[in-house]
Design the sequence.
């Protein structure tokens, strides 16, 4: 349901949290490309990055006024300071867009936050500004598959790093694992085609991923899962 919605241009509503996360990712990429941002310039750089890429999201996130934007910039600055303690050894590229057409009518796209080559192999890194989710292994496997298809090489490792908490998950993908992931992606594409052709509804499997679903408001199972997982 999430994939189908996004293919039709339906995305989750913008929130202060997602806006702050997007701003932090802009700071991370700038840091890696041009070097550390001087502490006294961080608020100004935040405004520059907002003006360059995030202005359209401000109203939707409810941070268009100076009073509401100020705490967002302060939070982004705190997270960025944590980011500066991480090593950038072997950095090669930031915000790398990947696109592959593995079959007629199927396009697989993704963006890798950072690519490192500290030794003989490539390490793909996904920055998180919150806690690492339960579905992070699926995301890492997808990035590894997409990189292998697009670049013709198996990543030495894929990582998810929470800048806020310091959590880190590192996986070393194998050909067998990427083959399984490719089968899953192919099955999902086939399922979507069948659903659209028949006009039916896809099976629903609620879980932590529901919190970021673009059709959550119209999905009773997903809404119930989010309430249960968020606690009292």
Sequence:
């Amino acid at each position: 349901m999430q994939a189908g919605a996004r293919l039709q241009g339906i995305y989750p509503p913008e929130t202060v949290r997602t806006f702050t996360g997007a701003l932090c990712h802009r700071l991370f990429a700038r840091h890696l490309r041009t070097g550390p941002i001087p502490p006294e310039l961080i608020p100004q750089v935040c405004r520059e990055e907002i003006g360059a890429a995030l202005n359209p999201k401000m109203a939707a996130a409810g941070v268009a006024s100076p009073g509401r934007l100020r705490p967002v910039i302060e939070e982004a600055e705190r997270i960025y300071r944590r980011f500066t303690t991480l090593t950038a050894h072997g950095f090669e590229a930031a915000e790398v867009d990947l696109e592959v057409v593995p079959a007629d009518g199927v396009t697989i796209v993704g963006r890798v936050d950072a690519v490192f080559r500290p030794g003989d192999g490539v390490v793909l890194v996904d920055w998180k500004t919150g806690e690492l989710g339960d579905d992070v292994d699926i995301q890492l496997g997808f990035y590894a598959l997409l990189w292998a298809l697009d670049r013709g090489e198996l990543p030495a490792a894929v990582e998810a790093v929470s800048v806020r908490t310091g959590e880190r998950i590192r996986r070393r993908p194998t050909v067998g694992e990427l083959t399984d992931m490719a089968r899953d992606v192919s099955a999902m594409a086939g399922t979507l085609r069948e659903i659209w052709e028949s006009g039916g509804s896809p099976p629903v499997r609620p879980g932590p991923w529901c919190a970021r679903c673009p059709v959550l408001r119209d999905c009773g199972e997903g809404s119930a899962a989010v309430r249960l997982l968020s606690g009292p």
